[in-house]
Design goal:
- By secondary structure, the protein is an alpha+beta fold.
- It is 30% helix and 25% strand.
- It has helices spanning 11-15, 23-38, 90-99, 127-138, and strands spanning 2-8, 42-47, 55-59, 65-69, 79-86, 112-116.
- The strands form two sheets. It has a four-stranded antiparallel beta sheet, covered by helices on one side. Strands 3-4 form a two-stranded antiparallel ribbon.
- It starts with a strand and ends in a 5-residue tail after the last helix.
């Protein structure tokens, strides 16, 4: 089972001009991710640039698309970073999430969210699903 630990953004993260986190917090994050790696559950993890450096593509019902540049309002609804893990159960993911360091630093408000990723086996058989499985195999993701 794969889960994404989503680090929710905040006004402070969105205002950052340089990625210069507190050294103690960075050390805590490194230790946590080392523990994930040593346990063999870490798949990926990274921080994201503020939304002012991003964009959104809006799709309309009539088939149109338009690109909207950041920044975006409501920082608490944005994602500042993520960690992707593969574990045996929801309970194991919950245990790892409880150990995640406060991404804003000690004594500050912060939120992380966990979401399970869909696996190919979750979907009913279809030709497009078989095509996705072939694509995954070509990329070396799954046999």
């Amino acid at each position: 089972m794969r889960f994404m630990i989503i680090v929710k953004s905040c006004d402070e993260f969105e205002a950052e001009t340089n990625p210069a986190p507190d050294e103690a917090l960075m050390a805590e994050m490194v230790r946590y991710h080392e523990e994930l790696a040593q346990a063999g559950v870490l798949l990926d993890g990274s921080g994201l640039h503020p939304s002012r450096k991003g964009w959104r593509v809006h799709y309309s019902a009539d088939g149109g698309k338009r690109v909207v540049d950041g920044p975006f309002a409501e920082a608490k609804e944005l994602i500042a970073g993520y960690t992707l893990i593969q574990v045996r159960s929801r309970e194991e993911a919950l245990e790892w999430s409880r150990r995640f360091p406060n991404p804003a630093g000690r004594g500050k408000d912060a939120v992380i969210e966990l979401r399970q990723l869909y696996e190919m086996e979750d979907f009913p058989p279809s030709q497009p699903l078989e095509d996705f499985k072939k694509l995954d195999a070509m990329q070396g993701n799954k046999p």
